[in-house]
Model the fold of this input.
Amino acid sequence: MNNPDDAPDSVRREVDSLREQIEFHNRQYHALDRPQIPDAEFDALLAKLEELETRYGLQSPDSPTRRVGSEPLPGFVEVRHETPMLSLEKAFSEEEFIQFETRASKRAGIEGAIEYCCEPKVDGVAVSLMYRNGVLERGATRGDGVNGEDITHNVRTIHDIPLRLEGSNLAGTRIEIRGEIFLGKKGFVALNERAREEGKTYINPRNTAAGAIRQLDSRNTARLPLRMFCYSTGLVEGFEPPETLSEVFDLFDEWGLKTNTGRQVCAGADECMEYCRRLLEKRPDLDYEIDGAVIKINRLNLQRELGQTARSPRWAIAWKFPAEEKSARVLAVDFQVGRMGTITPVARLEPVFVGGVTVANTSLHNMDEIERLGLCVGDTVIVRRAGDVIPQIVQVIEQGDERGAVVMPAACPACGSPVEPDGDIQYRCNAGLVCPAQRRRSVGHFASRAAMDIEGLGEKLIEQLVDSETVKNVADLYQLSAEELSAFERMGPKSAENLVSAIEKSKNTSLPRFLIALGIREVGDATAAALAAHFGDLEPLMNADAEALREVPDVGEIVARHIREFLDNSENLGLIAALRDAGVNWPVEAVRIQDSPPLAGQTFVLTGTLERMTRSEAKAKLVALGAKVAGSVSKRTDCVIAGENAGSKLTKAQDLEIRTLNEQEFIDFLEQHGEI
Ligand code: IVH
Done:
């Protein structure tokens, strides 16, 4: 029954209501940061909707089920932009802006002040969104401005992008919206925290966003907190645009598109320059990176009159902020040991003031990055600090007279244990908590905000506690007294007491926090939450074998192995016991019940002609029961449904001794499972 025309009205109503509820909660969560229901309940609504859509063939391009991503595409399809996506002329000084204004005034015969709409120039990736009758039909990259790539599957996963515009008068329209997709600074930092657990580093938000929208597998895009600000239209058909750009922005807001609230209408050059000055001051406080302002003539009829050159419109200009780049000499490259033993090269620089801070150290991430830069000690490099993102070395500009090649040390700089390669680009000290650097880091991680949240336990104090062997493992923290603490540098009796009570307070925690605190490889906040929701308490989790662990959403083979390895280690078990003895406790979580459908994990193949239902109806019924339906028979096939005139697939199934069902048997089977 997956012909949508056959869907009963009650099901349609339920589908509509589920879509509305899900969109409502999506907005609460993603746009307003005000979740109203637990994640598990949200997931249940989505699962229900997905099931009804599949069972009754009610899939629709604007359904929120499209937001989670889907199977990878085989390749990208080229898109020809109906109107080219231009770039902008740049101005670096007031003089250059005045020249731009004078040219525009002369060309359009304007006398007096021009009205502009000024906006922050967000450092992201330009995209085009085509809406037909208000429904998102296609997303495309800018490409070379004439041809881009179809990225519809990816833009659908971005919560800032409405799948349907909230307008009542959009029937018969085609409206192309253009804007910038980007990663916010907070989102980028959080993403890197998660990535670090897997030994990965994203170097900057812009490149990460650009990479994310060009994924063939949209599930990878869906994992990133991408955002979008809309700033102009391309093709517009069947719709009368307003008179000014500022009104276009208001219209975008009404339609549910995201716009930058930092925009402002300015009369004349002076106001524009004042806007740019203030924007530069506000730059560090914005949650996204900007590299300037875009100043556009506000009246659309003037824009049309001025037109464009081959490369850029004559009615807009990019005001570029001074580059936040400085040169500095690399004095040394040291190697730092991470919590899990990963060894990271760090450049020590001649201190430089760049982007509002003094930079003396920057991570070089890994040996591949050093090779890519061709960097040696003594070289002069360009250091860039964009917004408040970690400073980075962009390139070598001058080689030093005496160049010291950077080599990975053979022994761990903290404990002297051998350094071993781990995968293609990482190196690791495998000494674990015997290594003082790893011990310090693991205490820091244990106390961090997402884990046990112990306020007042800073890096310097941890270093003293660990190096004096007062704290040999994290359980020792719970034995510290205020007297003992006040003996350490910079610890007055008051701060010592405060710290003891913060440590005491941390005993009442939650299971996800405790799991994060344990510092199991690749178990960050999302995985810890999923484990807690699945098992409810620590005992069932400790008793779960790798297979049982893999039933948890997001836990794959590698994560399951890391968890098992951690829990099979007697030292770790001793640590968990010591922490519980010290009084660390958490409430048991409500277990999220996930009835797995009867055919979950099984692969079916359909072949031949079925008389009493179409192939796609049969497929939908199997999918509704949790099965995967494949196109060809292999050893991994569990069952073949063979209709009339079944050919080679049936023969192959018989050869491989795979279970086969004829149509009547299939119908009986569906009846047994309540699908007919
Ligand atoms: S308007 C024809 N507005 O800057 C005018 N662009 O250098 C099209 N950008 O490709 C651009 N913020 O990626 C415009 N508020 C804004 C923008 C903006 C960022 C980017 C955009 C464009 C590039 C031009």
User: Anything to note?
Assistant: The mean pLDDT is 90. The pocket of 2-(butylsulfanyl)adenosine is lined by residues 86-88, 119, 121-122, 126, 180, 231-232, 294, 313, 316, 318 (CB under 6 Å).
